[in-house]
Amino acid sequence: MTYKKYLTSKLNFKDIKGGLPSYNANRLIELFQGKKDSYRDITIINSIYAMRTIKPDYHFDSCFEILSNSLDNSIAFNHLNEIKK
User: Fold this and answer.
1) What pLDDT was estimated at residue 2?
2) CA 71 to CA 15: how far, in whole Å?
């Protein structure tokens, strides 16, 4: 399977490399706020595989749509804010 159609840009190791907990938390918040970069791409692809372990009948494309929609429409961000309350 080619992943290129799921990538917003060429993968950049600098974007996906973690750091201090505060840096990692900020990157996650940026992801939830809609930032599109390699971090988002890798997070979605990894999440697809996690999702498919629970729902093996879900197709890769369907998982991609669900996860992208959750990020692009602030569903994940709103959920994060609810958890923080």
Assistant:
1) 64
2) 17
Q: Count how many domains the chain has.
A: 1
**Domain span at 41:** 19-84
pLDDT in tens, 19-55: 999 999 999 999 999 899 889 999 999 999 999 999 9
Please check whether residue 49 is in contact with residue 5, taking contact to mean a CB–CB distance below 8 angstroms: no
In-domain check, residue 3: no
In the chain, the amino acid numbered 43 is T
In a domain, 14, yes or no: no
Cβ neighbours for 64, distance < 8 A, ≥ 6 positions apart: 6, 44, 48
Residue 30 lies in a domain: yes
